[in-house]
Structures are given as structure tokens and as C-alpha cells.
Specification:
heterodimer, A: mainly alpha, 12 helices, 71% helix, 0% strand, B: 2 helices, 2 strands, elongated, membrane (chain B), DUF4190 domain-containing protein (chain B), transmembrane helix (chain B), transmembrane (chain B)
């Protein structure tokens, strides 16, 4: 295997790794509320969500080859990579993509360790932006688009991130308030049961939409790498095997379940009852579907979190833990720059170490960091068994309480 | 920058409007359905356990759930159709699928 092929293989593996973290990072967006209210058992919930993500990923027949165009300038408008970046087996482009993916994965894992629902798309975009700045300079980034449509870092990332949680919170808040007004006089045991079905239906819709939106991004990135290295030449189609492995990776990730994030969303932010759960997921589903229908790019995570917050605000007397909400907002704000810093650093490492060793060393650094964070997470593991325990604090990277102390 | 802000605000209020109709409106209809179902069943479904059953409530509940089901099917259609690279329009209430313009 020569150096170019090896680099390509590393890019594909890393992209699938990102897709996997994308799956488990976002399980909670769809299923946290159903798990918290007991509408679905934790295991059943993640299996349902994984299956729908798989179906959703296969539904995305439309080519998502231009995914990087939103934030960086390594491709032309039709998806073909810039000719100057594909000379000599496409190493220049592959290294940017590899470094960007590593930035996205590292940030996804760190926020997962801290139990924070940050946006996977922001992590990916951030990593790519950092790698592009390191590799191509400031001109490598598409900051504002060309003014003809919503585009660039500002239009596709920053503005939607500011607006979408607010929209979702308003919709969920009003929905919750109206629902509670409408069912006054109905016994709680009756409403709980009815709304559980509503919850399951709406959460399933969110899962399906997630599979369609997010798996596409990885498919686009892998196909771009294949084109850059001369292994694929169509800019209007994605190889079938890419579609299959991406769909499987995101579904597998979802099935593993990001329990730490599920717990924060379902138990930490607000205490949720079934009617609230349904209001929150209905708001998420409607906002996600409406915006993808209207071409308004947004993050599933921001919408889901905004909805859950809104449902806490809409129910009189419900408690919203603002400390946790504040931590999430901080995580959102720093996701893009932090992933960019990692992406940029990785590009420098890969660049300094040469075309053969560079990508291998970057990959090893990724494995090392991922392994360390996984080991750290085992110290206070969150899983299906304790995801719904009484909320006593954020599952953070802090060490577990000493033995003998009720933790 | 200014262009983007304008496009974003344009998109945002449409999303908000659609979100309110589908994301808050449909759950409200669902809640009316639950309310009607309880009214239809009477007895232990209501806070006042002496409430008599009212068959009309069940009919009303059925109607409400139909409306909600239509909304859910429409949602799935949006996912499927846009995934296949086509366009869907709800201008005539009943969804119409066409090639992307």
C-alpha cells in the first residue's frame, strides 16, 4: 500500500469514526425525553432511534457532495475538488479533511465526556475551518458566501445557531402551555398514557430526520476524498458502499447511545412529564423538517435543546436548571472555535511530519485522545441502568465521590 | 454579512410560523383528542370520577387523531421526498410531489 492509499484509508476510517460519534452524540436529541418520562425503556428507545437513523440515512438519495462548501473553499460549486489541491494523489486535500475530521471527533468526545449536548455539525465544520486556515490561510474559509443566498460560516452556521434554539423554545413553550390548558380536568393517569404515544411518534420523526440530514454529511466528505485521490469521478453520485457504511456507522453510534448526554437532556435541564415530552419533540420535529424544507441549515442539537428548555418554560411551576442551560450555551459558543483549534493543530502536525508519516501520526494522536477520554468516562459511567436516576449534578469529568459517601 | 442576516431573518420567521402551526398546533389538536377521549369515556378518565361517558367524545377524538396523523404522514413525506431530491408542496393541502425546480 503506498502513502496516498494509506492516507485515503485513514480519511475514510476517521470519517466513519466521526459519523459514529455523530450518532451517539445525538441520540438524546430524539430520545432523551421519551426515556426520561418512561414512554420507552432506555434500551428500546436507542434501538428504535438507531433503526430510524438507518432508514433515514438510506433515504438521503440526493447527493450531499458539496457539504464542505458551506464553510471552506476546497471544492467547486459542482462538488469537484479544486485542481490545485489534488495534485500528487490529492494529499493536500486529504490532509485538510483528515485534520478537520479529527478536530470534530475530539470535540464531540470531550463534550460527551462532560455530558454536554453540543452540535456535531458545528464540531465538523469547526474542524474543517481550522484545518483549512492552517493549510490554505484565511482565504480557505467561506465566511460569508457570495451574497446570493444564505451561505458561509455566518449564514450556514452562526446565524442559524443563534436563531434556531430560540425558535424551538418559543414553539415548545407555547405548545406546552396550550396542551396543559386543554387537558385541565382530565385525570393525570389518563393523559400520561395518551401523551406517551404522542411522544413515541414525534421522537421517531426526529430520529428519521436526523438520519437523513447527518449521515449525508459524512457520505459527502468520504466521496470528496475518493474524488480527490482519483478513486471516483462522478460529482453527481455517491458510491453505494459509502452510503451503506455511513448509514451503518451512524446507526451503530445511535444504538450505543450517548447516555451522558441523554441524561443531561432528559433529567438535567428540566424535569419532564409526557405532555411536555410530546410538546418538545413535536416542536423539534416541526422546526427541523420545516427548516430543511425551506433550505435553512440548522443543528438538530440546538433545536432539541431549545425545545426541551421551552417546554420547561411553558409549564407553570416547572423548574429549569439555568446553570445547566448556561453550561450548554457556553459549549455551543466554543464548539466551533475549539474544534477549529484542534483541526488546525492536527493539520500542522500532519504537515510537519511529512506526507507519509504525517497522516499516520495524526491518526495515532486521535486514537490516543479518544482512548484517554473513553477511559476517563468509565470512572463515572452512565448507561441504560442509571440514565434516569434522580438528578444530583452534571455527569462531569470530575472524579467520582469517594467510597462510603452517598454519590 | 448584511445579506446573510436578511436571508436568515427571512428563513427564521417562516420556520417559526411553520413550527408554530405544526409543532405547537398539532400537539394542541392531539391534546383536544385526549380531552375528548376522556370526555367520551367518562368515569375514571376524568378528575370527577362520577362523569358519565359521552359517545360523541370518541368521535371527536377520532377526528383529532386523524388530523394529527395527517401531519405526521406529511412530515415523513417531507423527509422522504427531499431525500430523493424532489420537491413537495402543500399549497393545495394534499401534498404534491414534483421535480426540484
Amino acid at each position: 500500500m503506498n502513502a496516498e492509499t494509506l492516507t485515503l484509508v485513514l480519511v475514510v476510517v476517521t470519517a466513519l469514526g466521526f459519523d459514529f460519534t455523530n450518532g451517539f452524540h445525538d441520540t438524546g436529541n430524539a430520545m432523551a425525553t421519551s426515556i426520561a418520562t418512561g414512554a420507552l425503556g432506555p434500551r428500546l428507545a436507542v434501538i428504535l432511534s438507531a433503526a430510524l437513523n438507518l432508514v433515514g440515512a438510506f433515504l438521503s438519495v440526493e447527493v450531499a457532495l458539496t457539504v464542505t462548501n458551506a464553510v471552506i473553499t476546497v471544492q467547486d460549486a459542482d462538488g469537484a475538488p479544486k485542481p490545485e489541491l489534488v495534485e500528487g494523489g490529492g494529499h493536500a486535500l486529504l490532509l485538510i479533511v483528515l485534520a478537520g475530521l479529527v478536530g470534530g471527533i475530539v470535540w464531540n468526545l470531550l463534550t460527551w465526556l462532560l455530558g454536554l449536548p453540543s452540535s456535531s455539525s458545528h464540531a465538523l465544520f469547526g474542524g474543517l475551518i481550522g484545518a483549512a486556515i492552517a493549510g490554505l490561510g484565511m482565504s480557505g474559509v467561506n465566511w460569508n458566501g457570495d451574497g446570493s443566498k444564505l451561505d458561509g460560516v455566518v449564514g450556514k452556521v452562526i446565524l442559524p445557531a443563534l436563531m434556531s434554539p430560540v425558535i424551538a423554545a418559543v414553539v415548545a413553550g407555547i405548545g406546552t402551555w396550550v396542551i396543559y390548558r386543554l387537558v385541565v380536568g382530565v385525570a393525570a393517569r389518563f393523559t400520561e398514557n395518551g401523551f406517551r404515544w404522542g411522544q413515541i411518534g414525534t421522537a421517531s420523526l426526529v430520529s428519521l430526520a436526523h438520519g437523513t440530514n447527518d449521515a449525508q454529511k459524512t457520505m459527502g466528505v468520504i466521496t470528496l476524498a475518493l474524488i480527490a485521490s482519483g478513486h471516483w469521478s462522478h460529482t453527481d453520485a455517491i458510491p453505494l458502499w459509502v452510503k451503506v457504511v455511513c448509514a451503518l456507522a451512524i446507526a451503530l453510534g445511535t444504538w450505543i447511545g450517548g447516555w451522558r448526554i441523554i441524561r443531561t437532556l432528559g433529567k438535567g435541564l428540566v424535569e419532564i412529564d409526557s405532555p411536555q415530552g410530546m410538546a418538545a419533540e413535536a416542536s423539534s420535529a416541526a422546526v427541523i423538517l420545516a427548516s430543511s424544507h425551506l433550505g435553512f441549515a440548522l443543528s438538530t442539537t440546538h433545536v432539541a435543546t431549545g425545545s426541551i428548555l421551552g417546554t420547561g418554560l411553558g409549564r407553570p411551576g416547572a423548574e429549569v436548571r439555568w446553570g445547566i442551560a448556561g453550561r450548554m450555551v457556553v459549549a455551543w459558543v466554543i464548539t466551533l472555535p475549539a474544534a477549529a483549534v484542534v483541526g488546525g493543530l492536527m493539520w500542522e502536525i500532519g504537515h510537519v511530519c511529512g506526507t507519509t508519516a504525517g497522516p499516520i501520526i495524526v491518526f495515532l494522536v486521535l486514537l490516543g485522545l479518544a482512548g484517554w477520554m473513553y477511559a476517563r468516562s468509565r470512572m463515572n459511567a452512565v448507561g441504560a441502568h442509571n440514565v434516569n436516576d434522580e438528578w444530583q449534578g452534571t455527569p462531569s469529568a470530575t472524579l467520582p465521590a469517594p467510597k462510603g459517601v452517598a454519590a | 454579512m448584511i445579506d446573510n442576516l436578511q436571508f436568515a431573518l427571512e428563513g427564521a420567521w417562516k420556520v417559526l410560523l411553520a413550527g408554530l402551526v405544526l409543532g405547537a398546533g398539532l400537539p394542541a389538536v392531539f391534546a383536544v383528542g385526549i380531552r375528548s377521549l376522556a370526555f367520551g369515556r367518562g368515569g375514571s378518565a376524568e378528575v370527577d370520577e362520577q362523569a358519565a361517558p359521552h359517545p360523541i367524545g370518541k368521535v371527536l377524538a377520532g377526528l383529532c387523531f386523524l388530523v394529527v396523523a395527517y401531519g405526521v404522514v406529511a412530515g415523513i413525506l417531507i423527509v422522504v421526498v427531499s431525500g430523493m431530491g424532489k420537491e413537495i408542496s402543500f399549497d393545495h393541502v394534499w401534498p404534491q410531489i414534483s421535480e426540484k425546480s
